[in-house]
């Protein structure tokens, strides 16, 4: 249950009265120390942290009882401690409400978060003037002891949790390896898996269902970042929990059924044999093994960008028909890659073997699964059209292959008019479907398209670069395009293409290729690449400016490229785009500026702009969630390391503090963390200017 946070502790004129601050500290300390259930992971860190906060709570209550004026340095310390305790509360709640298994896998990372908070508590206590506070001697001694303990505390990682985490990863790895071979049998150690599940508190079917729900929520949360490995690992965990549940509780049900059978009359053997035969013919497939599209047993499960799993045939048909969203969640897919779910494939393979279901190739899965039922009592007829789907798909792929080979021949040998038409048709063919993109590259189109980038015919050049853009969406084609020496030609089109559309599609191609880290280095090393993108940022259409901004963002992820982006004059253009409502690329421009803040040249250039701070304050109030995160990142970076002038301008602006307080209370986790940090920094600035500490 969400707990309403106390009122923010800072206003533009200084701190709130001591009474309000202490009441807020006592309230949030009680909320932490009275939490009913300690999470099954991070038990040592959570228990130790609660003990520390109980001790601090006693200090706060005693200070409140004295009802005396506090020195300014103690108010600053108490403000810092409030921020620390609020972070403790958020972290413990995340451990309680999140997936136990995912927390186990991330045990070291979460332990490090506790360690960072303890160190922040230590720094806050460094400035607590105990000698000036009217508190009892024993309380002073306890706080001094706590201060010494947190100063020398080491990272606490529970060795038992690390062992469980390693055992869990071994099970996941065994499952993944088993799934990679179509003839290999699953080698999952279910006894070990059951022990791990029991140790983290999964004992009943309801516990398993709740854990699956939490993992699914985590997968959806991670999917938007495009972290395929993370999403794949979470989906593997979901598969393992689902199978563990079915194995553990089906065995218990089987034992119960055997006990019931022994009570039956021995003369009913023939009837029981008939029952067993009938039961084996009517198979109840677990829902997690069914494709959400076809509802058939999956033969080749794959993960899409949203984190959901589908059978390859079904989701490929969905994507090839022009859809770019996840069928289950409706979320737009940020890429069209299909990642094999080896863990689930292994579990399905094991299920098929245990239930005597023929294991067939994915190509024949439509027909072989037609005898299976959606439930034990309702039989399903497979539509006649589905029976011909595989043969129809093969015929379609053969047709694409013949067409691609024919068009590539025209690119190589045809006249200008024929080349123009062939490039245009390849552009259309490559627009939809990963199979089309693979087949076109296998037909040898890429080297000829790279040659046509230098064509003096505007349409040929435009069609060639757009076809390469479409082909680059298929991951393997990125390597082939770079290997064909395309980068220099694409950069030339970007800088001096015959049409604006050709230049903009060249920028989009650079964005697509630069997803691979090594190509960020290669593209950034070309002298004209970054300046040409900056030029498009100035002269392009709305779509072109967006393509240029996203390409610059990708390239700037490599630190050396950041300096070149700054030296090419990108910063003033990006700031101008923040104020250009027609351009509509505020979030993209903010993201690039936030990256450029990471180099000294970028920081210096951004600080030169006097209009940026008011713009960022307005974006804190009215921007998108991502825009707010990048705005607070920029403001925090500008205020650090000698940014006193920016801090003073923030304090003078009447909208800045309320906006930061609102973000600290209601923003994303990242925005809350940075808003807290900026508020603390402004607090120090306010304290030094109004209440200097002796």
UniProtKB/TrEMBL annotation:
Domain U-box residue range list: 284-358
Protein name per its UniProtKB record: RING-type E3 ubiquitin transferase
CDD domains: RING-Ubox_PUB (cd16664)
Repeat keyword on record: yes
Catalytic activity, EC: 2.3.2.27
Entry GO MF terms: ubiquitin protein ligase activity
Reaction equation(s) it catalyzes: S-ubiquitinyl-[E2 ubiquitin-conjugating enzyme]-L-cysteine + [acceptor protein]-L-lysine = [E2 ubiquitin-conjugating enzyme]-L-cysteine + N(6)-ubiquitinyl-[acceptor protein]-L-lysine
InterPro entries named among the record's database cross-references: Adaptor_Cbl_N_dom_sf, ARM-like, ARM-type_fold, ARM_PUB, Armadillo, PUB12-19-like_N, RING-Ubox_PUB, Ubox_domain
Provenance organism: Cynara cardunculus var. scolymus (Globe artichoke)
ARM repeat copies, ranges: 444-486
Record GO biological process: cell surface receptor signaling pathway; protein ubiquitination
UniProtKB keywords: Repeat, Transferase, Ubl conjugation pathway
């Amino acid at each position: 249950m969400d707990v309403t946070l106390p009122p923010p502790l800072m206003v533009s004129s200084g701190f709130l009265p001591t009474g309000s601050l202490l009441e807020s500290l006592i309230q949030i300390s009680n909320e932490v120390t009275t939490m009913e259930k300690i999470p099954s992971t991070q038990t040592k860190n959570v228990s130790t942290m609660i003990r520390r906060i109980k001790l601090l709570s006693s200090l706060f209550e005693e200070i409140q009882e004295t009802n005396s004026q506090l020195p300014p340095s103690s108010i600053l310390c108490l403000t810092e401690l409030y921020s620390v305790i609020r972070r403790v509360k958020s972290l413990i709640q995340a451990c309680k409400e999140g997936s136990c298994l995912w927390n186990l896998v991330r045990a070291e990372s979460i332990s490090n978060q506790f360690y960072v908070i303890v160190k922040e508590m230590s720094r806050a206590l460094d400035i607590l003037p105990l000698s000036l506070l009217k508190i009892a001697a024993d309380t002073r001694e306890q706080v001094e002891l706590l201060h010494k303990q947190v100063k020398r505390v080491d990272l606490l990682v529970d060795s038992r949790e690390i062992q469980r985490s390693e055992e869990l990863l071994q099970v996941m790895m065994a499952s993944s390896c088993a799934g990679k071979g179509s003839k290999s049998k699953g080698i999952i150690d279910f006894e070990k898996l059951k022990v791990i599940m029991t140790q983290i508190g999964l004992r009943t079917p309801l516990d398993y269902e709740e854990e699956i729900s939490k993992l699914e929520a985590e997968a959806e949360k991670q999917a938007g970042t495009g972290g395929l490995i993370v999403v794949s690992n979470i989906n593997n965990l979901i598969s393992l929990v689902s199978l563990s549940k079915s194995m553990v509780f089906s065995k218990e049900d089987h034992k119960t059924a055997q006990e019931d059978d022994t009570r039956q009359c021995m003369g009913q053997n023939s009837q029981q044999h008939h029952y067993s035969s009938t039961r084996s013919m009517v198979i109840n497939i677990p829902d997690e093994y069914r494709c959400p599209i076809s509802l058939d047993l999956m033969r080749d499960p794959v993960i899409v960008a949203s984190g959901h799993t589908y059978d390859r045939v079904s989701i490929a048909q969905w994507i090839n028909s022009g859809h770019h969203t996840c069928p289950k969640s409706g979320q737009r897919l940020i890429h069209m890659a299909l990642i094999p779910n080896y863990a689930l494939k292994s579990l399905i393979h094991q299920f098929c073997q245990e239930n005597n279901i023929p294991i067939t190739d994915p190509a024949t899965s439509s027909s072989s699964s037609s005898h299976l039922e959606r439930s034990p009592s309702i039989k399903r007829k497979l539509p006649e059209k589905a029976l011909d789907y595989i043969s129809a798909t093969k015929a379609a792929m053969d047709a694409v292959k013949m067409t691609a080979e024919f068009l590539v021949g025209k690119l190589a040998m045809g006249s200008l008019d024929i080349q123009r038409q062939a490039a245009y048709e390849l552009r259309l063919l490559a627009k939809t479907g990963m199979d089309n993109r693979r087949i076109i590259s296998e037909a040898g189109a890429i080297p000829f398209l790279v040659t046509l980038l230098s064509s003096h015919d505007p349409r040929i050049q435009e069609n060639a670069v757009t076809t390469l853009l479409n082909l680059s969406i298929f991951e393997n084609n990125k390597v082939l395009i770079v290997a064909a020496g395309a980068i220099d030609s694409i950069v030339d089109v970007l800088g001096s293409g015959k049409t604006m559309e050709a230049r903009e599609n060249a920028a989009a191609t650079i964005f697509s290729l630069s997803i691979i880290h090594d190509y960020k280095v290669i593209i950034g090393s070309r002298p004209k690449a970054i300046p040409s993108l900056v030029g498009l940022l100035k002269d392009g259409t709305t779509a072109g400016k967006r393509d240029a901004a996203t390409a610059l963002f990708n390239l700037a992820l490599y630190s050396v490229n950041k300096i070149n982006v700054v030296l090419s004059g990108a910063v003033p253009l990006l700031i101008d785009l923040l104020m250009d409502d027609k351009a509509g690329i505020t979030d993209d421009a903010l993201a690039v500026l936030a990256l450029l803040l990471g180099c000294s040249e970028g920081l210096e250039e951004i600080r030169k702009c006097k209009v940026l701070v008011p713009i960022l304050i307005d974006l804190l109030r009215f921007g998108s969630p991502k825009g707010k995160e990048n705005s607070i990142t920029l403001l925090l970076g500008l205020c650090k390391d000698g940014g006193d002038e920016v801090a003073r301008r923030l304090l003078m602006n009447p909208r800045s503090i309320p906006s930061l307080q609102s973000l600290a209370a209601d923003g994303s986790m990242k925005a809350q963390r940075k808003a807290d940090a900026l508020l603390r920094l402004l607090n120090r600035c306010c304290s030094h200017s109004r209440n200097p500490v002796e």
